[in-house]
Structures are given as structure tokens and as C-alpha cells.
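Module 6 notes. Inverse folding takes a fixed backbone as the condition and produces residue identities as the prediction. Think of it as a translation problem where the source language is geometry and the target language is the twenty amino acids. Below is one complete input and output pair. Work through it position by position during the lab.
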């Protein structure tokens, strides 16, 4: 038995090393992996501090074992739900399911989303966009200390990294975030209701943080000046138009409740020193899954009511460019509907098993309006809404 155990550990080590060295995206996200996490700490006792754990991943011919991983609770309102979101930290940078190598990975529980497809759908649209980077992902079944915890989305963390958010020298990453803590490095803007949290560089000198704040204040000032459309002095000197358009459409199509410059609204620096939107994040209250702000209705503009975007749409050239870009997304409407259908077929058995654990189908959760007895009904409601949303926007451009 001892020899067998040594042989197993040796082979596991070779396989995990191979996984760490493979960056080829040769897998299909439309399948399930298995993730087992074991730790002396009970599931409901995991807090914000890192604890040691053992993690094993398998599926699609892939195997990875990490005996020295760490895990902690992440998220804001989602962290308060029974099915928890986690950040998984590996001992070294590794490729998981052939996603590019890194140490930090996010487990999204999609507790509020009964279809458990909304995050993946948004990331799928993001992959088609002109944004610099959108998180890659994989469906996994999580077993925690031997207990089934249901489907999760294992995805890349938003972080400055050569395989994720790439920045120029002296670049930065910020987030408009209502959950900003007083201890966070942040600033406010005249036409943005929530604080702007500086994520990177996290150890920035006061002078660098002041420069970033000054850039945003200048952009805000110019955007709301009388000559904001001026070709030489206007807003295009400060804002990256292409990213502002694509980020807008992904979140407007989704009618993403949090994306109205409330939280999870990331921006980063471009090589020419402008402000770019992205990456996209946080879609559990999107695609009809919130009654807040009438976001469950397929009709009406939502992200366009944000002061910065309302002002941008007053520029005829921006409005024209945005309209033309939507036509591309609309031409791919069937692609996104088929994405939901295909993944729903695969998800159904897992979702019904998830229902036996968490009992969410007919329970009122947060602001979600969708409560049906079966998984198929939840999926059909999403499909109907998505098609209606595309068509409403098309009609009202």
C-alpha cells in the first residue's frame, strides 16, 4: 500500500506539473469539471482570511492536485448567501483546465441565478467583444470536505497579470464600487455617485494616486464641459471610445443592475494614457434577475442613465458608433441564445441536484423576481427575456 501511495503521489505530481505548463485553450467550457476542496475548517466557518486547503481538479482528461492551496471567502452581498463564493490561491502559478497560468482563481456560486448560466453568458459575450480582456471560465461541481456543494463557475480573477489584465508601465486598475472601505485608496468624482477604488498599484505612492485621481477629475470636467465633443480638446483625449462602447453594450443588453456605476465597474489605463472600461464582472443580478431599477423588464435604457454615458450619448458621433456596434451584437443574437440552450441541456442534471442542496427554485432570494418550480422554466424565462431585450434595443436605437 505504501508503494502504491508513493507511486500515486509521483504520478499526481507529474500531472499537476504538466497542467502548470499548459496554456493551450483546447477544452470546451460547455462541460463539467470536478473540484474537491478539503480543509480542517468547516464550510460555513471560512472567513476573509486565507486558510490552508487541499484542492483536486479533474475532467476533460485533465488532472491537478494542489496540497498547499489556500482559500478564503470573497464577494460582497453574495458572501452573505448560504452557497459561498471563494477565492482559491494555488501554491504556484498553474493552468487550470488549460486556462492561462496564474495563482488566484474565483469560484462563483451563482446562488441567486437559478439557471447558473448568467455569468458564463456574460463572459461569452465579453469574449466576442473588443475589450482588452474578459475572464475565462469553466463549470465545475464543488465537493467541500466530502459534501456536494453544487455547480460553480471556476473563473479567472480580475488582476493585473501577464495572462490577465495587462497594463503599460505605470498603468493602473480601478473600480467604481459602492462597497469601498474607508481604508481603501479611493477618490470621488463630481458626476459619479460611488467612490473610485484604486486596486493597482496597491502600494502606490501618494503622488501616483494623486496623478490618477487628477486624470479622472480632468476627464470628468472635460466630459461635462460645453466643448466636450471638440476633436482636439474633447473627451476622446481622456476616454477610450472603443472600450466604452463594448462595455456599455454588454451591460446594457444584460440590463445589469450593478453596472450603473454602482459596483464592479472596472477601468484601466491604456498605453496612450487614456481611461478604458473593463474588464466586465458580476452578472448574478443581470439578464432579468433583479426587480431593482426595473431591470427585470426587457424594455428601457438602463446603463445609458449613468451620467457619464448619458453625456457620451449626447455626442452624435459616439451615438452613431455605438449604434453601429450594437448591430454586430444583434447579428449574433442567435449565437447567444444557442449558448444558453446548449449549456442549459448540460446544466439541467447538475442544477436539479443543486436544488436538492440549496432549495432556490421557488424561494425569494434578494431582488430576483424569477421563481419557477423547474429548471426548464427558469431557462425559458431567461431565453424569452434575452430575445425580447435584443429586439427592444434594436427597435429603439
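Target side of the pair, the amino acids:
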Amino acid at each position: 500500500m505504501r508503494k502504491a501511495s508513493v507511486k500515486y503521489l509521483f504520478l499526481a505530481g507529474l500531472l499537476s506539473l504538466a497542467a502548470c505548463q499548459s496554456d493551450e485553450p483546447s477544452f470546451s467550457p460547455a462541460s463539467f469539471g470536478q473540484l474537491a476542496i478539503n480543509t480542517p475548517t468547516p464550510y460555513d466557518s471560512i472567513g476573509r482570511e486565507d486558510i490552508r486547503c487541499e484542492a483536486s481538479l479533474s475532467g476533460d482528461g485533465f488532472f491537478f492536485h494542489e496540497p498547499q492551496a489556500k482559500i478564503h471567502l470573497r464577494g460582497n452581498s453574495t458572501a452573505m448567501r448560504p452557497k459561498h463564493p471563494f477565492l482559491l490561491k494555488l501554491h504556484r502559478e498553474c493552468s487550470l483546465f488549460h486556462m492561462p497560468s496564474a495563482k488566484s482563481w474565483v469560484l462563483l456560486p451563482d446562488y441567486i441565478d437559478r439557471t447558473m448560466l448568467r455569468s458564463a453568458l456574460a463572459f461569452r459575450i465579453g469574449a466576442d467583444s473588443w475589450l482588452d480582456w474578459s475572464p475565462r471560465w469553466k463549470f465545475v461541481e464543488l465537493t467541500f470536505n466530502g459534501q456536494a456543494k453544487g455547480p460553480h463557475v471556476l473563473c479567472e480573477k480580475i488582476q493585473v497579470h501577464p495572462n490577465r489584465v495587462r497594463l503599460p508601465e505605470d498603468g493602473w486598475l480601478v473600480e467604481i464600487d459602492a462597497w469601498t472601505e474607508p481604508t481603501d485608496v479611493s477618490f470621488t468624482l463630481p458626476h459619479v455617485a460611488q467612490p473610485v477604488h484604486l486596486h493597482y498599484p496597491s502600494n502606490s505612492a501618494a503622488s501616483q494616486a494623486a496623478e490618477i485621481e487628477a486624470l479622472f477629475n480632468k476627464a470628468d470636467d472635460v466630459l461635462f464641459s460645453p466643448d466636450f465633443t471638440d476633436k482636439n480638446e474633447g473627451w476622446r483625449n481622456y476616454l477610450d471610445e472603443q472600450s466604452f462602447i463594448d462595455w456599455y453594450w454588454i451591460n446594457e443588453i444584460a440590463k445589469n443592475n450593478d453596472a450603473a456605476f454602482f459596483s464592479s465597474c472596472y477601468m484601466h489605463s491604456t498605453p496612450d494614457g487614456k481611461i478604458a472600461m473593463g474588464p466586465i464582472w458580476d452578472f448574478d443580478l443581470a439578464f432579468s434577475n433583479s426587480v431593482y431599477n426595473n431591470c427585470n423588464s426587457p424594455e428601457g435604457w438602463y446603463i445609458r442613465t449613468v451620467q457619464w454615458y448619458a453625456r457620451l450619448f449626447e455626442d452624435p458621433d459616439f451615438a452613431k458608433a455605438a449604434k453601429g456596434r450594437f448591430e454586430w451584437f444583434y447579428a449574433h443574437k442567435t449565437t447567444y441564445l444557442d449558448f444558453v440552450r446548449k449549456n442549459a441541456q448540460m446544466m439541467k442534471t447538475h442544477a436539479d441536484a443543486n436544488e436538492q442542496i440549496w432549495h432556490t427554485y421557488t424561494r425569494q432570494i434578494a431582488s430576483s423576481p424569477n421563481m419557477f418550480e423547474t429548471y426548464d422554466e427558469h431557462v425559458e424565462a431567461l431565453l424569452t427575456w434575452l430575445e425580447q431585450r435584443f429586439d427592444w434595443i434594436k427597435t429603439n436605437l
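Reference fact for the lab report: The first helix runs from residue 2 to 21.
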